[in-house]
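Predict structure. Chain length: 271.
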Amino acid sequence: MPELPEVEVTRLSFADRIQGARIASVRMGKPLRWPLGCDPAQLHGRTVLEVRRRGKYLLLDLDPGLLLLHLGMSGSLHFASQQPEPGAHDHCDLATTQGVLRLHDPRRFGAVVYADSQDAPEAVKLLGHLGMEPLGDGFSLPNFYAGLQARKTAIKQVLLAGEVVVGVGNIYASEALFIAGIRPTLPANRISRPRAAKLHSAVRDVLARAVLKGGSTLRDFSNAHGESGYFQLEAMVYDRRGEPCRVCCTPIQSMRQGQRATYFCPQCQKR
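Prediction complete.
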C-alpha cells in the first residue's frame, strides 16, 4: 500500500506541472471505493490552483471546489501531455490544458471524491480524524507524547492508526521504532518522554529520507513520471527477517501485529 512518502513523492512529481491548468474533461471508469459525488461535467472549465497532501490523501484545490484522491492498496497516478487509450484498470482521467492525470488502480480501493471545500461533510468524513502531519511544523513533541500517554495499545499499532500522527504506515513504523530502540509491542503509555522524543525524531527522519529516496517500491509503486522508489534498499529491519541487524548482527525477527508483518531486532529493541 502506498504510504505517506509515496503519496508525497507522487504529489511532487506532478504538482508544478498541473498547477494553473484548466480542466477540459473528466472520464470516470469502473466504480472506485467511493463515488465522485458530482456529475463529472460539472468540473469542466475549473482551474487547478495547487496540489496539497493530507496524510495519504492528495488534495487538488480547484476554482472552485476540491478533489480528494486516494491511491488505495495498489493505485498510482501518471501525468503526461497525452495518455494512451485507457486500459481495464485505468479508472479516472482528468484531462487538462497542461496534460492528463490518470489514476491506475488494479484493486479499485482508491478514490476520487469531489467536495465543495475542505470543510464540506464529504471532506471532513475522510480527513477530520487524521492526526498530526509528521513532516509539518505542527508535529510537536508535547502533543505527540500526550497522545502516546493516552493509549495503552502497542506502540506500532498506535502509529499505524493515524490518530496521533498520520501517515506512518507499516514499513516506516518498523523503521522508526528500530531507530528509536523501542520494541513494537510496548504499550504506548509506557514510553517515557525521553524515549518519545527519540521516536518523534525517528518518525520525522525516516519519512523525510524516504521522500528523498522516492518512496519504497515493493511491488508496483511508481510516481507520476513512472519512476520507482529506492528507500527499501536501505531498510534497517523491514522485510529482513533472518538477516543480520546492520548495527549488532543479531538476526532480524518478525511477527504479526494486527494482521500486518512487524520486523524488529531483539537486541537493539529490547524494550
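Summary: The beta strands are 23-28, 47-54, 57-63, 66-70, 76-80, 90-96, 99-104, 111-115, 253-257, 260-264.
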